[in-house]
Amino acid sequence: MLKIVFLEYQTFVKRRLDFDLGTDDKNLRYWQNQLFLNFLIYCTPISLVALTPGIFMAAREGLPVIIAIDLFCFFLLLFFTFSKRMSIRTRKVGVISIFYILSIFLINILGYLGPGVFYLFFISVLASLIFPIRHAYLLTFINAILLAFFALVISQRLFGSALIQEYTPVKWIAFSTNLIFASILIVLLIDKIFQGLQSTILTKTHLEEQYKSIFYKSPLPMWLFDTDTLRFLDVNEAAVRHYGYAKEEFLSMTIRDIRPAKEVPEIEDIVKKNKISGKYYDGNSMHIKKDKSAIYVKIESNLLNFEGYEARIVLATDITKQVEYQLEVFDANKRVEESEMNLKAIFESTLDGFVLIDKAGKIITFNPRAEYSIRFNKRQNAFKAGKSIFDYIEVSRLPYFHQIMHKVHSGETVEYDRKYLTSPKKVSWIRYTVTPVRKDNIIIGACITGRDITERKLYLKSLEDQNKVFREISWVQSHMVRGPLARIMGLIPLLKSSKDENERIQVLEYLDISTQELDNKIKEINDKSNYITEKYPEN
C-alpha cells in the first residue's frame, strides 16, 4: 500500500515539475538534471524525518526561532518543488539558498556542532552533483567566506551568537579549515567521478559505433542469436552472401537450421553450458548452406546483452579448404617424420662424431659417437645440450679454437688433425672438420665432425718407415755395393792378363778384400729387408 502511495506521489511531482530534462543521455548534464529531479521527489518526504523531531525538540527547549526557520525553509522547499513554470536552474538556485538559510541560522544559534555546519558541507556536495563543477568550487569559496564572517562575529562578539561562548577566533578558524578541506576534497572526488562517467559514456558510445561498423562491415559472416530460443537476432551482409539466405530468412530461423541434424543436440548442450559459464567459445563444426552444401567453419562466440536478450555474438570463418588440405599435410608430415627417423638412424649409427652448435657456441645436439670421436681435453665431461662448446676446450687452446670459429662464421670449412696420448705407450689421432651451418643462406652455427684416424696415421707412418729403409737399401745398392763390385770387375781382367806370380798374388788379395766388402754390404741389405718384414708383416 505504501509503495502505491509513493508511486502516485512520484507521478504527481513529475507532472508538477514539468521541466525538460533533454534526451541526450550521453551528456553528463542530462544525468545531473535527472539526479536533481530525483532529489526533489525524495527530499520533501524525507525532510519530514528531520523536521518533525527538530520542531518537537525546539519547542521543548523553548527555541521558537528554530521552529520558525525550519518551517520557513520547509515551505520554501515545497514552493520550489511544486511550483509550475519555473526553470530547472531557478529551482536549483532556490534549493541551494534554502540550505544556506538553514546553515547560517543554525550555526549562529546552535554553534559549530549543530546541523548548520552539516548543511554547509552538504551545499558543496549537492552543488557538485547538480551544477557544473566550477559552481561547486565557487560555493565552497563562499562557504569559506561565510566561516570567516563567523570568525569575525566571534572576534567582535556580534549578534549574541552561540559561537561566542564556545569558541575563540583561532579555535573557530581551526575547525573551519577542516570543513573547507573536506569540502574541496569531496568536490574534487565527485568531479573525478563525473569525468570518469563522462569518459565511460563516450567510450560506450564509441564502442557501440565500432560494434555496428565491425559487425555489419565485417568480411566474415557474423550473427547474433538468442541463447534461450536459439533464434537469429541479427546477421551481417557477409553471412547473407556466404550462406545464401536472405536476412529476413535468417531472422525467421534458428541456429539449428544451419546444422546437420545429428549435431543439433550437441550444439544445444554447448549453448546451455556456455550460457551458465559465460565463457568465450572457440571450436570447429559443420554448417549447411541454403543450397544444402556442407562447409566446415571455425566458430568464435561470446555472450552479449542485445536489446534485452541474453545473446551470443558469433564469428564464423570458413575453413573447408584448410580441412581438405589437412590430409595432404598429414601425409606430408608422415613422410617428414619417416625422413627424420632415417636421418636420426644415420646420425646415431655413423662412425663419425657430430656436435651441432649455434652461432654463440651453445650445443644444440650431438650423436652418441661424439663422446669417443671428439675429445677437446684429457678429462673431458660428457656433452650436454645447452652448454657452451668453449667449456670443453683446454684453456691453452681457446685462442686457437676462437680463430677456427671465426673462419667458420666467415664461411670457411676448417680441417685439422690432433694427436692424443691415451696411455703412456699408446697414441691416437682425431681429424676434426668444422663446417658452417646455413639457413636461408645465413650462417646460424657450425657442425663439428670428429673421426678417429689413428689406424690411418699408423699405416702412413709404416709406409714412411718402409720408404726410408727402401731408400737406404737403394742408396747402399747404388753406392756401397757398386764400389766393391766395380773393384772386383776391374781386378778380374788384371788377374787374367798378369804373367808375374807376385802380381797375381797381390791381385788375388785385393780381389779377396773387395769380395768380403761386397758380402758385408749384401748382409746389411738383407738385415734391413728382414727388419721391414718383421716390423710390418703381411696380414
Automatic annotation (TrEMBL):
CDD domains: PAS. Keywords: Membrane, Transmembrane, Transmembrane helix. SMART domains: PAS. InterPro entries: Biofilm_reg_signaling (IPR052155), HisK_dim/P_sf (IPR036097), MASE11 (IPR048437), PAS (IPR000014), PAS-like_dom_sf (IPR035965), PAS_4 (IPR013656). Pfam families: MASE11, PAS_4, PAS_8. The chain crosses the membrane at residues 35-56, 62-81, 93-110, 140-160, 172-190. Residues 207-279 form the PAS domain. PANTHER family: BIOFILM ARCHITECTURE MAINTENANCE PROTEIN MBAA, DIGUANYLATE CYCLASE DGCP. This is PAS domain S-box protein.
